[in-house]
Amino acid sequence: MMNTSPLFIKNLCIGYPGLNNHVLFDNLNLSLYNGQLVCFMGPNGIGKSTLIRTLAGAQKPLSGEIKGIGNKNVSVVLTERVNAGMMTARELVSFGRYPYLGWSVRMTEADHSKIDEAVQQVRIHNLLDKSIHELSDGQMQMVMIARALAQDTPVLLLDEPTAHLDLNNRVEIMNLLRRLAKENNKAILVSTHELDLALQTADLVWLATSQKSIRVGISEDLVLDGTFDEVFRFKGFDLKTGRVKQEPFRHTGIQLIGDGHAYLWTKNALERNGFHIDPNSNLTIKIKTTTEELTTWTGFSNGEKTFLSIAELLSALINIIPNAQSLKSVTEIK
């Protein structure tokens, strides 16, 4: 299980040398373990990319030790897009084997096998013959991850691999990294701003603080003990519920009765439109959904009305708000 550490740091100080060293992190003592996906998070400009480069061996630390560094132990995926002319995706993936090639720069059957294995794991067979310049940002990231896997190292470092990607690609890449950590027993460190995805996928979080230190813990503990709030100082976002705080500007409470997805999305729409949920309100919305997933809204305001969408329901509620407090039942969702 996760009992070995292929990369660990001791009393590490990183930053930029000069007359007065610009220190970003000081006295770090951290380990990466096989089988773990670790998300490295913190405010912009705090030094996440610098630490990734330092752990990769691309930048020297100011002081301290890094054990396990080297191109046969650590592979890296950075944010910069590769500009490789007419190189194909297949050729770029093959670069992962170059640290193992001799002076002849000839690949063996074992090298080709590692490349094929990486392609299969990342599932990019359909991209192999495409030129690099033809790939979307999401496709390019998948190819770069395959290149890192072809290098076949126990440690994989990635700097903002989901930056500039759409939601589907972000989810796909984070799920891929989690699967690779578990199935390939790799130690994977990802610097990311994807708070929602990190909370759901990371085994461990490294959280950079303004005190030039890194707090370590599982995401749930860091949420509940207030560490995330302390570091990010969220404005209008409640991390404990995962929701943007809405101002109930209509000052009208609604008793919402029901469950399931229809309840959650109805509640979301009501709060976004200035209502608040009040179990004691005499303005009631009852939610029911048929076994066929059919949801309709039947309202009672100057006679029975049926609404076919939440948008119609909201329109009716907003129109009758001056009389809302005297209504006992406004709508029934079947």
What would you note in describing this structure?
- The chain has 334 residues and is α/β, with parallel strands linked by helices.
- It folds into two domains: 7-238, Rossmann fold, CATH 3.40.50.300; 253-333, no CATH class.
- It has ten helices and 17 strands.
- The chain has helices at 48-56, 89-94, 109-122, 137-150, 167-183, 195-201, 219-224, 227-232, 260-272, 310-320; strands spanning 7-16, 22-32, 37-41, 63-67, 74-77, 155-159, 187-191, 204-208, 214-217, 237-238, 243-244, 253-257, 276-277, 284-287, 297-300, 304-307, 331-333.
Which features characterize this protein?
disordered C terminus, alpha/beta, Rossmann fold, 2 domains, 334 residues, 6-stranded mixed β-sheet
Instruction: Briefly note the structural class of the backbone.
Output: alpha/beta
Integer tally of domains: 2
> What's the pLDDT, averaged over the residues?
84
Terminal CA distance: 50 Å
CATH superfamily of the largest domain: P-loop containing nucleotide triphosphate hydrolases
Instruction: Please tell me the CATH architecture of the largest domain by its name.
Output: 3-Layer(aba) Sandwich
Query: Major sheet: size, sense and barrel closure?
Result: 6 strands, mixed
Rounded to the nearest angstrom, the radius of gyration is 26 Å
Low-confidence stretches: 322-334
